[in-house]
Write a structure and sequence with these properties.
heterodimer, A: 180 residues, mainly beta, 4-stranded antiparallel sheet, globular, B: 736 residues, alpha/beta, 7-stranded parallel sheet
Amino acid sequence: MHHIESVSEGRVVGWAAADASGCPAKVTLTCKQGAVGIFASRPREDVLAAGYSLFSGFDLEVSSDCGNEACALEVGGERRTFSPSTLLDQDIIMADTIRRRDQLSGWIRHISGLKSLIFHSRSGLFRASVFSRLDVNEALNTDPSALHGFEISNVDLLSVYAVSINSSHVHWCGQSLQSV
Amino acid sequence: MSGRRGEREERKVTFDGTYVEIGSGEYDEEIAARLIDFVFSNTIRDETAPNATHGMLLINFSRVSLLYDPDGYSNVDGSYEAVIVNGHECIAAMGSENFLNSETLKPLRFRKHAPVPAARRHALTKRAIPKVSVIIPIYGSLRNTYDVVKEVENFAAELRSLGGKVLVSVDGHATKLQTQQHAEILGALPADLVQVFSQNENIGFIGNVNFLYEKTRPDDIVVLLTSDVKLQPNSISRVVTPLLEDDRIALSTPFAVGGENLEAPESTLLHWRQLDDVLSNIDATYPDAETNVGYMLAVDRRKYQGQTLFDTFFNNGYGDDSDLYYRCVNLGFRGVLVDNCCVLHEHGASFSHTEKRSLFQVENRRRFMERWGDVYAARQGKASDILHQRRNVLGAIASALSASATTPEIVFLLPTNDRRIGGVCAVFDIAESLCDSGIQTAVLCKNSPYDESMSALKSISLNDSLLCGAALESAAWLIATSHDTCGETKRLARQHACKAGYFIQGPEFSFSEGEYLSSVLTGYAGFDALFSVSEYLKEIVRQHVGDPIHLIPYGPPSLKYFETGAERENRSIAIQLNGNPNKGSSFVAGVIAALIRDGYHFYSFGNEALRGKRQNFCTHLGFLSAAEKIRLFNNVEFYLDASNFEGLGLLLLESIQCGAIPIYRHNGGSADILKSAGAGIEIGDYAAIKDIRSKLSDFRNGSDWAAERRRCKEAVKSHSLELATSAMENWRNASY
């Protein structure tokens, strides 16, 4: 059981219930660059109360550095197309150092801070390590508990087509992530 | 339409007009789709009765009516046509109000839009207490299977009272011999209570657990026990109690020594069985386990209704239980810690491939975080704090009550708690075994740098005068275990008015090139009792002090080391090289020099620092765990014991149990036992190395290997942990 509650420019909201074993449903976003699968993980007490499962919600911001190309949301066999909002890679990822085109460290502008940062590449998923950056907290005027720093290695930056932040923001990268 | 971060632009909604013709009319498909989405976009605002319906939507265009009902159109009459609007099945008719109720033929009354009906509720029907099925997957260590038999025998009466049964499945091994050996051990279990399955193929831990789980009934409470867990009386009853008491609880796990995130409260002085006694008298609060662990996991099948227990999304053994926990939370249930129960988890004892295990852990953690990373990050910290507080409270209670618990009767004093050293391991083995027999035993250590968090019996640092005092308060015996603990033992024994003993494991006067000759010989005097681990050592010590010297015939725990039936590498020899010259490294070099041209391959082990440093002539494997030693001793044809001297060569005994033919110098201890029985291959002194080629050649050409293995095992069968414990018990009973 699922429901797409709203699909508007750059944002999709809804819920998708787990199967009988409790395994969370997966929401898949696709665009020309590739696909990003995200497990529904937002607690939805209302969905649970209706007899389904707790971690059912999704509320995804979707942005792109690839123009205004439509992308698709697919959940429970239902497919919707929509346009992501337009953001440049540099609006998402601020690089401090890039080494050998497979190591990247920098910071993320995400206001609420980082919980998870995943790079989606042709070789698979790569989870960045995240840490505190007090200088960024000061510059963005965010709480010191909000993490902004990240570091990732062993990922071919040329093959990265998307990043997902906190499982709530998916950004389709342009062709120049390695030069951000 | 485009926008920048943080900006909001006015949204302009336009309809392009995708008109669909039907009969003489038409309707706008885009408007219909948007209206359906809008109306049915909030389908779960409140909970309704199970038979509630979604409601329906009627859209009247100028000449066409469109009806959408998620429940279908079986009760609708009239002249209409089915159409699909953005994936939704609708019916369309000319004009308005043409849809009739098929039973009354009156226009349909449109139901108010209502939430989706509840698909599943947690509430259980009131019914008889469910039966309990204990499932035990078996793989690897025969010793664990031997322990499983003892555990099942211990809880059989309790399980029968719960109307329960036991299902055991032996996974497929690399050789049929291993599977057969497990089945033979399990054959001792009562058939009316226990059903044993054997797998032809290796289906892995998760496959084996799921196989057993599918054999249980859909309304059972299933208790998963791994083969390396030991229980106390009524453990099963205590673990299933929260599942019976609370409809929201689907999973439960007790504390364990070696319990990872559910590690038992700190209780240095109490043995884990005593700790469980204390906990069993405390009211349980059942905090969220966050997460349950699979060593002992009760699952209420009436609540968790998945077809399988663990998800094959994970590799064997790690992360699968945490995933199950979050899946149950996702379904609205709780997984709890049974905080009035403690078991012993000997940790990973079933896994023989330690390198693969660490790879599994990394990969499984990645998979777990992919699925549950956000949920885990949001919940785990708070739940962990609650558990930590509860553990501290229970630890304080246990400490306060420890004075009323039985205090140790026998206390050993060790120089170190490094259990990788054979002599240290022997003392802990015997102490733990005595505790299991009901004789409270403690171990003091002069140095305790090694982590003991997963050990059944934790040592007490000699620097902790408070705990040491408590341990010795009522002790009858304090027993030294090495020449450098003799003085301290005698002093403490006098101070605490207990008797002093000396557990002698080797000819220590020869250690370190005889440096301690004087202190060792004088140290033998002044004890109330002396113990030696072999007849050979007993005779040596008797030359310096009189009787009584009690023989404690220590050896490997039964079935801990065993033959796997694997094919052995041709011309292969295992040797110990740990950097200690007393282990005969110069002798080893001579043997290698003598045999290397005959194509022998040597595998050495015992010192991590030497790994890779002797690549010319042998493969150095570093320090080996018990599982790795089993693998090595089952891979080689021979084990060479080159030690200059031994009180009891434990490695020699272990390799014999694994079927390696022993080659030994006449160095006392185990070699003495073998020589007396005419078993194995004795090579004498250094000068005899010149004969080793012909000795091995003769053996390889003319011997019955299987018969020789039997002869060696027969020669050393009088040495085992069980016999040593029994000898200690007999001495202890006679001393009162």
